[in-house]
Amino acid sequence: MNTLDQSADHSDKDTKQTILDATVMLIKEEGFQCATLRKIAARAETNLALVNYYYGSKESLMSDAVRVLLSTFDDAFQALEDASLLPQERLKQFLSRYVVNLLRYPGLARQVLEQGPQIMCSPTEYDRYAKILRVKKMHNTLKEITHVEDDNRLQLMMLQLYGAVVIPALITNMPGKREQITPVFNLPALDEQIDTLFEHYFNKYTL
């Protein structure tokens, strides 16, 4: 690759990163619903055609933005590495902190759930997602609790636990719907929900 080609390639990467950075900042400030392509282009100080050129679709851009946001959830992932806690408590702390972080950004939980089918159907997408979510650390913690060795089964268990915690949080925190939903889904505090879930889910492994 000659110097001119290298310069063009560097410029492409800079422009694409600028668009992604602008998207993430807009989501943090105004939420997913307000992150239109026109607003993103304006924030990135570029034009709409370049946004479409680099990302192809809003879905693709949002997918990368979700990964960036999830990669900042260090306090949640650190719980999985806290050797002073028993494995079940590590997993509880992880799920609790993860949900709290999700709810900091309006619409993030929904975006994560909507990406599920795409992620699970594509090995490449799953590999990227797994690295960001440090899936191996989750599996290792589950393995300590259950002594299950099969990775496919551990993955299924993690998805079940994740869904059981995140979906109620998503339902009860829908913008503009909380007053209607609360009388129907009068859920206890998040930590109590996780304790109840673990009590039933891990009962067979603690007998």
UniProtKB/TrEMBL annotation:
InterPro entries hit by this protein: Homeodomain-like_sf, HTH-type_TetR-like_transc_reg, HTH_TetR
Domain HTH tetR-type per the UniProt entry, residue ranges: 13-73
Keywords from the named record: DNA-binding, Transcription, Transcription regulation
Pfam families: TetR_N
Binding region for DNA: 36-55
MF GO annotations: DNA-binding transcription factor activity; transcription cis-regulatory region binding
KW Transcription regulation (keyword) present: yes
Highest taxon in the source lineage: Bacteria
Name listed for the protein in its UniProt record: TetR/AcrR family transcriptional regulator
Organism per entry: Paenibacillus agri
